[in-house]
Write a structure and sequence with these properties.
Blueprint: E1 11-20, H1 26-37, E2 40-45, E3 51-57, H2 59-69, E4 77-86, E5 94-96
Parallel strand pairs: 2-5
Antiparallel strand pairs: 1-3, 1-4, 2-3
Length: 98
């Protein structure tokens, strides 16, 4: 018996990534990976050197993005990933914010 995911099945992860994650194509790789996974949201650099991202979608896809953040782009050196789970805001698409 298969079920179609409904909006109530969506989850939202708000992620802060610490380490050498700026200037290493972390945001672009995050965007590309999120789109491949069918995850909505956004990613941006913070002034303190961290990267902030929001992922919304079905739980498995969002969890795979959170796990992906622990490694990130090939040249990144991730020290820590903080995750806060929030109520989804029905984002559509994935973008790099400035």
């Amino acid at each position: 018996m298969s079920e179609t995911p409904s909006e109530s099945d969506r989850v939202r992860a708000h992620v802060f990534v610490t380490g050498r994650v700026q200037g290493v194509f972390y945001r672009a790789n995050t965007r590309d990976t999120a789109r491949e996974q069918g995850v909505d949201g956004w990613v941006r650099n913070l002034d303190d050197g961290r990267v902030e991202a929001v992922f919304e979608g079905v739980p498995d896809a969002v969890e795979s993005m959170v796990e992906w953040c622990e490694t990130g782009s090939p040249d990144a050196e991730v020290d820590d990933v903080e995750v806060e789970y929030e109520d989804p805001e029905d984002l559509d698409g994935f973008e790099v914010r400035r």
